[in-house]
Amino acid sequence: MIVRKTTAELEKMRRSGLLVFEILRKLQEIAVEGATTMDLEVAAEKMISDAGARPAFKGYYVPAAGQDYKFVLCTSVNEEIVHGMPNPKRVLKKGDIVSIDTGVKLDGYYGDSAVTVPIGEVSEPVRKLLRVTREALELAIDRVRAGNRLFDVCGTVEQHVTSNGFSVVREYVGHGIGTQLHEEPQVPNYVDRRNENPRLKEGMVLAVEPMVNAGRPEAVVRKDRWTAVTKDGSYSAHFEHCVAVTENGPWVLTRP
What we know:
Strand order of the largest sheet: 10-9-11-16-17
Distance between the termini: 29 Å
Structural class: alpha+beta
Number of strands: 17
Shape: globular
CATH topology: Creatine Amidinohydrolase
């Protein structure tokens, strides 16, 4: 069932979203050559605690992994698509890219967002990967409007990504969000006609998150049971925002 939020509930989600925005803004300053992904984790956990919020990811049980997730961040470097785990031995190097994904629960409501950060100078193909993924997200956000259908959002990502020579990940998708981190509907980054195609209505909130591979779309999971990587070893980028459907159009809850 898709849960539509009241104005008061959206305001609460807005506070969660802005906290996530501030955390990611700070982490982008820390994500430099020589930093470790655990440095990002420590900083994020302190910011969440100081704000009186709870981490959305830490302690979250995933049946496919068979265990709770142990961190407040997912830090996915280069060929890692999503669910990369912070590690004090993972030192960021010039030319790397790192997807930083986090969420919080504040006053009963979740916020969730992700950004992919280049470390120092990266190659032109990698810059294009980041640019196209960001553009796909912005184009999809513009489709989160009452009266449109879910496939309008999904298809917008797919069309922009594939027309630029990249591929969308199919194993991992966006989602509804509210009092639960993952709510209905699922939001793939491609048109999956096996899924329902609900009409978007005021009060719906979607976590839209293009995951884009430079090479083939296939993903595999490492032996750690969490980290999803590109099967062909190509780089992958990931950006995410929570977007509410309102009478005035899309409202991005996870940025000012």
